[in-house]
Amino acid sequence: MATSLQSTIPVGDLQFYDNYVPALAAGNWRITVGHSLAGVATGDLGAVQRLVVSAPQFAMDSTVILNQYPPAGSTGQYAQVLPHIVLNDALLPWERTMTGSANTQPWLAVLVLGEDELIGGTDSPTRTQTTTVAGFLATDPAVLKPAVTKEDDVAGTDPCTFIQIPAGLFADLIPRLEELRFLAHCRQSNIADKAEQGLEQDGLFSVVVGNRFPATPAPGVPGGQKNIAHLVSLEGLEPYLVDQPDFGNHTSVALVSLASWTFNAMADQLQDFRGLMEQLVGQEYDGSSYTPANLWLRLPAPQLDTGSAAGAEAARRIADGYVPLPYQFRTGEQTFAWYRGPCTPVFPAPLAGSTAFPTADSALIYQGEFGIFDASLATAWQTGRSLALADRAFGQALFDFRQRGHQLTDSLLQRLQSDAFSASQIAELSTNTMVQDEFLKYLSADLLAGIGSAPVAQPASSPLLSAPAPSPD
Q1: Residue 282 has what pLDDT?
Q2: In the Cβ-directed half-sphere of 224, how many Cα atoms lie within 13 Å?
C-alpha cells in the first residue's frame, strides 16, 4: 500500500504503486469531544464538530482526466487493448471506501460496452442519461440503484449523469469486488528529459483499466465497430460484485458515469500471432504443395515477356531479390535503377578483398547492355559512411586526418626539392589524371610512414561514442 510516496524520482524513471490510499476517506465525518470527571455530573459539556472530506461522488471535473485510451473518437486496431483512463488526481480511485473490503479497493471501474448493451440515452453518443442527484437515488422497483449516502456538500438538485444496463449483463461484465485492486494503480514519472507538452515534469497519476477487450466487426465486414467506455462508480453496489448476485425484482442496474468516450475498433485478425503464421505459411502454399522458395524476400513474379532480352533480365533481377526504384541523374534526367538490400534470396558474389570505392558514385554498377544502373553497392557505401560519420569520435578523427593531409600537401608544394621527391619525378607528373592519383603514385615509403605515425588530435570534448578500434593491418 502506498500511503506516502517520495516527492521526486530520477529523471526518466517510471515507478508503479498498487494504490495511493489517503489518510482520511471521503465522506461525512464527526468529531465528538466530551469530559468525564469522577463523581461529577458533566451534563452537556461535550462538543460535536461535523466536517466533510470532499471528493467526486456523482460528478467529476473533466480537468481531472489526463488521457484516455483508445483516444476519444479514434479508429484503430484496438482488439487486443484494454481501454483505460489516466487521472491527474493520484488519490481519486481510493478516496472512497468500499463496504466489505479493504480500503485498498478502488471505487471506480472502466466498463467497455456496445451501443446495443445500454438502455436508454439514445440521444447521447455514449448512451448516458441525465437527471438530478435526488432523481437518481429515488427508488425504482425495476432499476437497481446504488445504496449510497449523499454527502453534505452535494445538493439533491445537482446534475447527475448515469447509464443503465441489463441486470444479466451487469453480472457478466462487472468486476468482482476482489478483482478491483488489479484494475487500478498509481504511477509516478519524471519526464524532465522529454518534451513535456504541458504535462507535469515530475507527476503522480492514477490509472483505471477496463476488464474487457473492445468488440470488432464480424469477419468480412469493413470499417470499425463502435465501442463506448464509461468510468463508473461502484460505491454502494458492493453486495452485487459477486459471482451470482441476487437482483430480486430488478431487471436493470443504474450506475453513475463520471466520464465517457467512444472509439471504433477495427478487426485485427491478420496481425495477431495466429494470423501472421497463417499468412506466412500461406505464401509458400501454391494450392497443392508447400514451396519454401516462395518465402524468399522478393517481389511477386510479374507478368513479363521473357522472350525478349530486357524482359528476361528484368525477371531474373526480380527473382534475385532486386526492386526497381526511381533514380535521378545529376543532370536531372529521370529513370530507374535496380536495388537489392542485404537480405537477399540468393547468395551474392563476394567482392575481392582489395576492392575499394572512394565515393558512392564509384560503387555504381552500370549495365551497358540495357543502360541501367545497379545502385545496391552505392547505397551500402553511402549507408556505411553515414553510420561512420554518426560516430562523433570517428568524425573528429577523420577531420583531423584530412586536415593534416592538407597541411602536408601545402608543405610539399612549398618544398618541391625535398627528400620526398626527385626533380625527374616532378617533371613526369601528368596533367591529364587526377591529382590524388599522381600524388599517391610518387609518395615514398618514408613519407607514407610519416603520415601514418603522425598523432591524431584529440576532440575538444569527450566523444559521445567510442572511436572504432584500428585495423590490425
Answers
A1: 73
A2: 17
Residue whose C-alpha cell reads 524476400 in the numeric block: 297
pLDDT for 185: 94
Phi, psi of 38 (to 5 degrees): -65, 125
pLDDT under 50: residue ranges of the chain: 1-3, 417, 454-473
- What's the first-to-final CA gap in the chain, in angstroms? 62
Burial level of 380, CB count in 10 A (0-12/13-18/19+)? Answer: middle
Q: What is the DSSP track for 295-314?
A: GSSSPPPP---TTSHHHHHH
* Residue located via cell numbers 481501454: 83
Place of cell 458533566: 42
Distance CA 68, CA 82 (A): 11
Copy the grid coordinates of residue 313.
533480365
Transcribe 45-94 into DSSP letters: --EEEEEEE---SS---GGGEEEEESPTT-EE--TT---EEEES-TTGGG
CB atoms near residue 287 (< 10 Å):
4
**DSSP helix/strand/coil, 377:** helix
pLDDT in tens, 378-423: 999 999 989 888 888 888 888 888 888 888 877 777 665 455 555 5
Q: Which position has the grid cell 625527374? A: 424
Could you list the beta-strand ranges (E) of 243-397.
252-266, 323-328, 334-339, 365-367, 372-374
Give the C-alpha separation, 385 to 358, whole Å: 11
Residue 394 host element (H or E): helix 392-414
Q: Return d(Cα 48, Cα 31) in angstroms, integer.
A: 6
Strands 252-266 and 75-76: parallel
CB 18 within 8 A of CB 185: yes
Q: What angle do CA 454, 458, 459 make, to 5 degrees?
A: 140
The structure's pTM equals: 0.57
Q: Which residue has the cell 501472421?
A: 276
